[in-house]
Amino acid sequence: MSNGESEYRIARFRERLAGGDVAELGVRIEVRGATVLLTGTLPTADHRDEILRIAAAELAGLPVRAELLLACADPPDRPEELR
What we know:
The chain is α+β, with helices and mostly antiparallel strands. Helix content is 37%, strand content 24%.
C-alpha cells in the first residue's frame, strides 16, 4: 500500500469519525511511523467498540494501535469521608 493511499484512508477515517455519532468523543488519531495510534477516554465500552469497528473497516491492512480508555462513571460504592 502506498503512503499516499494510507494518508487518504486515514483522512477518510478522521472524516467519518468527525461526521458520525462518535464525533464529540474526542478520539485522537496520530500516525507513528507506519502505525495509526488511536487515543482517548470514552464513556462506554459500546463507544469503544464502535470506534474499533469503524477503524477496522476504514483502515483494514494498516497497523492500528488502540489506547482507548473507559471513563468510570459508576457511582461510588461508599460515601466520601471529608475531614
